[in-house]
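[Solved] Which block belongs to which protein?

Original post:
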Amino acid sequence: MPSVNKLLHVSAILIALLCLSLAPSSSLSLAASKSHVSVQSIASIGFTVFDMDRSVAFYRDVLTFKPVSDVEIDGPEYDQLYGVFGVRARIVRMQLGEQQIELTQFISPPDIRPIPVPSSSNDLWFQHFAIVVRDMEAAWAQLRKHHVRQISPRPQTIPRSNEATAGIKAIKFRDPDGHNLELLWFPEGKGNPIWKRGGDDLFLGIDHTAMTVRSTENSVKFYRDLLGLTVASVTLNMGTEQEYLDSLPGARVRVTGLTPTMGPPGVEFLEYELPAVGRPFPADSHPTDLWYWQTTVVVSDVDAVTAELRRVRQHVSSTVVSVPNGILGFRKGVLVQDPDAHTIQLVSP
């Protein structure tokens, strides 16, 4: 479900936490914890695709993203970065508003595994990004015109009972590879003010990327206490609208939004209370799998951040990689995994 990109009033936070008091993970503290790291921004949200030309056409023609770079990479440094031997890949960056996505097609090695079927939003490999639209009915018509596969049968409007997000409209759907996406429409007084800018573009930009987690507390410890993101919102979403949005009968999900220093996009945690948290990442997951996502975050000193994560025994790639000629838009990068095996790419510009 959508997040509200502004700090909640203290009393609203306390009420939200009280509503969560029956959940096993109800001890979340929203107070900022001292971190030696401060994520400056989320540079891109990336995932692996099967057919690059098909994916580029979908994001360009259906959702009006514009290609900004198209490169091929290979060499031992990329084997080290991805943890895969013999990498050759085509990487395309596309932009909508001020935000970017990064599509990766692995040319070598050649074997690409599809997203498991069935796949639901309570499975721990679930991740999506949310696109803000100017007009939900017009955007939904665009999806239907292109025969896009929908998770939600129709746009859902958050009811008044969820005060923090009341009136927000949302619909979830999938791209040609089965990656999950969401459209959002914000009423007055909700969402980041940048989404109320003038103009006539229907699709405005990316508000956040959301990922399913087993424990909100563990995820907060990683993203806030280690990486320095700020907890900005906490809601408990349930009812008919949530069920139809996720296509999950009885869905009850705890949603926690975090923001970097600059943004959007931000990050959202989805902790499902009902149905229970689903299947974990397959143990042999690799970046060549279509369920692979990576969130690229910008830090001032990737070497120092990597050392910090090693100090607290978080899983970190074996080495920080220097990227030749900054071909990927950064000088140094490393892949790490959060507590649920979602991949974060830490980079220094």
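(Second protein starts here: sequence line, then its structure tokens.)
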Amino acid sequence: MPRPLSHIAPDWWDYTTLDSSLINDAAKLTERDLRQLSRPGFKVVMYDTLEDFYLAEALEYIAAWKQATADNPVGICGPIGPTEQLPLVARLVNELGLNLKHAHFWGMDEWYDDKTKKEVPVTHALSFERADRELCFNRIQKKLAMPEANLHFPKAKIAEYVKTWHAGVRCAVMQGGQGDIKHWAFNDPLKRVGKHKDTPPTPAEYRKLGTRIVELHPVTLSQNARTSGGGNITMVPKMAITVGPRRPGWPTRSPSGTPAPTTIRWGSA
């Protein structure tokens, strides 16, 4: 039996094309049910308040950067959405006197301008790089600041960004925002075109997708207009550069030879 058309955007695949019984079951999940979803490799952590959640996100930056040394540089990959943790990160770095000389940061996404075929400039009102800098990195004391070369933001020249994942720096944590269309980062559902006109990609196929330029689902455009664009959907770019589901290739072991686990944390984009 063929999958139904999306209730939201018929030209796209999304969660509304799933079997209705599955959607109904998901809608009935309680807090207790969510806690019980933890399993090996997937831990559910609950927070009582938004403030506690944002602080936990900020502390993951600090915990990752405290591990960084000259012979073992360490970084974190972070989203824009949420952003409330970013000023907390800067404040914690300054209060703790944490020197970020050997720390790294990867931006998770950036808007893409289809007209110029480039990432949007930092002067763009919705620029993710601009938000990271203004809310976090520009607020860190200069004597503690991360070297510019250690800041890695997605670019239209994908290969240059991907190369930074293979430069001997361990990514300790990859955080991520959860979108209204159920995306992580900007890994949106795909359009119903080409080989995926009648069937969506399998989970195995989707997990092979790397850092790339993507077209964004209409729900994602609407969400970003609501949360970041003052309701003006016309100012939201229709495309973006995003970290893919495929593990980008950072080292999987520390210099001592012990496993270097990576945590993925979801927030509300």
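Accepted answer:
You had them paired correctly. Confirming on the second one: The beta strands are 74-78, 103-107, 109-113, 118-119, 151-152, 170-178, 212-215, 239-242, 263-268.
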